[in-house]
Design brief:
The chain is mainly α. It has 8 helices and no strands. The protein is globular, with a radius of gyration of 17 Å.
Length: about 200
């Protein structure tokens, strides 16, 4: 059987989870921690994010059906949210859409536990997962989506574990350049989601 997953699915997940862009955020939250504890926080953060995203992957379509939300409406609203996220990325803003808020960062620095904050499973990632599974795809397509999601989360884990080296190699400017490029791609994909939703609504 063939796992028919569009390359755009991988690209969107890679952009919204943004492994490289999360490296400086993670370093900022863990700058006063020992290397071993930072590694523990990275693993816990990815484990928690994986659990949350897998739940949304499994119940996405039934959840929307239960709430009475049509796929066209969700594609339009999801596209708008992803477009706002793309704007943040292009202008290198760290809003609550793609990083911790000021209050969350304050709590992280004082509790020494950043694993519960939305570094990975943020609004953009949750929206993307719901869009991926609405309407419910064929079985092997779903399996392909699952493998793609786990692959991107694996890259995110590597990014957090190597965050110190990444920041040494790229610096904040280099990380921002990559994030801006990814933001441009996400903006185009977000507009496509909106156009698809509008088109479906009138068919």
């Amino acid at each position: 059987p063939r796992m028919d997953v569009p390359f755009s699915t991988f690209v969107v997940l890679l952009v919204v989870i943004d492994p490289i862009g999360n490296a400086p955020i993670f370093m900022a939250l863990t700058h006063n921690m020992e290397a071993a504890y930072r590694r523990k926080m990275a693993i816990r953060s990815i484990t928690l994010a994986t659990a949350i995203l897998l739940i949304f992957l499994l119940i996405g379509d039934p959840l929307l059906a239960t709430l009475g939300i049509g796929i066209s409406a969700f594609r339009i609203s999801g596209g708008i949210l992803l477009f706002l996220l793309a704007i943040d990325m292009v202008f290198a803003h760290q809003s609550g859409l793609r990083s911790t808020t000021a209050q969350e960062q304050y709590e992280a620095e004082h509790k020494r536990d950043v694993s519960v904050f939305p570094l990975i499973a943020g609004p953009g990632a949750l929206t993307t997962v719901l869009l991926m599974t609405s309407p419910r795809p064929a079985f092997w397509t779903f399996v392909g989506m699952l493998v793609t999601l786990l692959l991107v989360l694996g890259l995110a884990l590597m990014s957090l574990l190597l965050a110190e080296r990444i920041m040494h190699w790229l610096g904040q400017t280099g990380a921002n350049v990559i994030t801006r490029l990814l933001g441009l791609i996400l903006a185009a994909l977000a507009v496509q989601y909106i156009l698809d939703g509008i088109g479906n609504a009138f068919v």
